[in-house]
Automatic annotation (TrEMBL):
It catalyses: D-threo-isocitrate = glyoxylate + succinate. This is Isocitrate lyase. Can also use Mn(2+) ion. It comes from the Bacteria.
Length: 531
């Protein structure tokens, strides 16, 4: 007996036990509604997706070609359409996630209006977006299953037993649109208790994976902006512990923590770390602080701070802001220490924020980390802040120049120019870009590739294209040819926007509730019938 039939029988037994008051309940309809709402709470989602993500991590450890990917989404509808597209084109969602970008929450979801990525937005908006994304993904399940149910009813009406059994099999083996979300908690929005409280809200909304960075909460900057300030390891580890306690309290025992280090681009620290003996973690952190050696007491001015560093008295360089400077060129060493320390103290995955997409640079740091933690692996930001075209053209240029090729036809500083698009260098650079994720997964330990804010850019680009034509000479043709005709021909479900928004689900539910008396929207006069 199929699971679908078992579910119907289970409701039938309930109805029989309740007697005549439940006479209006159709067991098959109730079973359908249950299947359309597989995940009752956000914690159900978090527990399910944590297992999915843990299995993906194990699969990657065995085969680096099994890396995972995601795109950042700033609205539930965007996330929903992404997953519908993935299922349509690839048949399943294996290895595909969603990313919740703190940048996009700040820029697009704050009640203050657009904000920079500096943790100034309401922290509750982060958890709210997680809940919204999963609400839309659950609706995608209901939408797709509803079509299967309608097709099943049609097959029965036509007496097509083979088709009926095939549809029941599709219902029994239905793959949900629910996938893991890697959720950005920035630097924790306050002290460790604040981090714990927000992490709980995010997990209750459905997050199985939380990404936290080692910047100072009240000085937080976008990873691709200047002025980043890091904290001593003890401060960061307290927040990793806070997130783990939140997972454990809520029963998501295999929740995933991504520890992000911004040390590669961060030249400042707010604190001098506490150290108890030479070589401990605090002492290692302080060893990177830049300063001047103190030879005599007269070298110390009023208010100066003095530390012992490598057996010498050092006066750290302090800015007017009170922040201390790190030694120039110490970034990679600090990254490696950050990553090893995080993995040894509760983190599951790493995030190294870099200034360019360069497999060799990433691998050089990961290989050092793996000398201590062999299974270390990364979540990597394929950032729109990189000029990908210029970066890879310059990387190819440098590689060819090193090989001794004649590069006189190329101007390295001007390689972004359109005139290089169809040149040998331009074509080769595009191949490097196309293969970047595969190469980095294999050579640099990257388990998960994400683009933080792609849909911010796609929304702007598509809107610009439509506005340019619609308000120009094309008029209505700009929409018809540029949007609707493409939707029809490319099988984009939103062309039937009433259906996508739930109109057919609502009609069927009305029939469940009221039978022939139901007033439905999908009759012969519904203009959606034109599609």
């Amino acid at each position: 007996m199929s699971q679908y039939s078992k579910d119907i029988d289970a409701v039938a037994s309930l109805r029989e036990a309740q007697g005549s008051p439940w006479g209006g309940i159709n067991p098959e309809y109730a079973a359908r509604m249950r299947a359309q709402n597989r995940f009752k709470t956000g914690l159900d989602i978090a527990r399910y997706t944590a297992k999915v993500m843990r299995q993906d991590m194990a699969d990657y450890d065995g085969d680096t070609s099994k890396y995972t990917q995601s795109l950042g989404c700033w609205h539930g509808f965007i996330g929903q359409q992404k997953l519908i597209s993935i299922k349509k084109h690839f048949g399943d969602t294996k290895g595909r996630y969603l990313y919740l970008s703190g940048w996009m929450v700040a820029a697009l979801r704050s009640e203050f209006g657009p904000l920079p990525d500096q943790s100034m937005h309401e922290k509750t908006s982060v958890a709210a977006l997680i809940a919204e994304l999963y609400t839309f993904l659950k609706q995608a399940d209901a939408w797709e299953l509803n079509h299967l149910y309608r097709n099943l009813d049609d097959a029965r009406a036509a007496g097509d037993k083979s088709k009926e059994q095939d549809l029941i099999s599709q219902i029994d083996n239905y793959q949900t649109h629910i996938v893991p979300i890697i959720a950005d908690i920035d630097a924790g929005f306050g002290n460790p208790e604040a981090t714990y409280l927000l992490a709980k809200k995010m997990i209750e909304a459905g997050a199985c994976c939380i990404q936290i960075e080692n910047q100072v909460s009240d000085e937080k900057q976008c990873g691709h902006q200047d002025g980043k300030v890091t904290v001593p390891h003890a401060d960061f580890l307290a927040k990793i512990n806070a997130v783990r306690y939140a997972f454990l309290e809520l029963g998501v025992d295999d929740g995933v923590i991504v520890a992000r280090t911004d040390s590669l681009g961060a030249g400042l620290t707010q604190k001098i770390a506490v150290t108890n003996e030479p070589g401990d973690l605090g002492d290692q952190y302080n060893s990177f602080i830049d300063g001047d050696e103190i030879a005599k007491a007269e070298d110390i001015n009023n208010g100066d701070v003095v530390i012992k560093q490598n057996g010498k008295l050092i006066k750290p360089k302090r800015l007017a802001s009170g922040l201390f400077e790190f030694k120039k060129g110490s970034g990679e060493d600090r990254v490696v220490l950050d990553c090893i320390t995080s993995l040894q103290n509760g983190a599951d995955l790493l995030w190294i924020e870099t200034e360019k997409p360069h497999v060799g640079q990433i691998a050089s740091m990961v290989n050092r980390i793996r000398e201590v933690v062999p299974n270390a692996k990364l979540v990597y930001n394929n950032s729109p802040s990189f000029n990908w075209t210029l970066n890879f053209r310059q990387q190819v240029f440098d590689a060819w120049e090193k090989e001794g090729k004649d590069m006189s036809q190329y101007d390295r500083a001007a390689l972004m120019s359109e005139k290089y698009d169809n040149t040998e260098l331009g074509i080769e650079a595009d191949k490097w870009t196309q293969n970047f994720q595969r190469d980095a997964a294999r050579e640099a330990g990257i388990f998960h590739h994400l683009i933080t804010l792609p849909t911010y850019h796609t929304a702007a680009l598509s809107t610009d294209n439509l506005a340019k034509g619609y308000f120009g000479n094309e008029g209505m043709l700009a929409y018809v040819a540029g949007v609707q005709r493409r939707e029809i021909r490319e099988g984009i479900a939103t062309v039937k926007h009433q259906d996508m928004a739930g109109s057919n689900i609502g009609d069927d539910h009305k029939e469940y509730f009221a039978g022939e008396a139901a007033l439905k929207a999908g009759g012969k006069d519904n203009t959606m019938n034109q599609f």
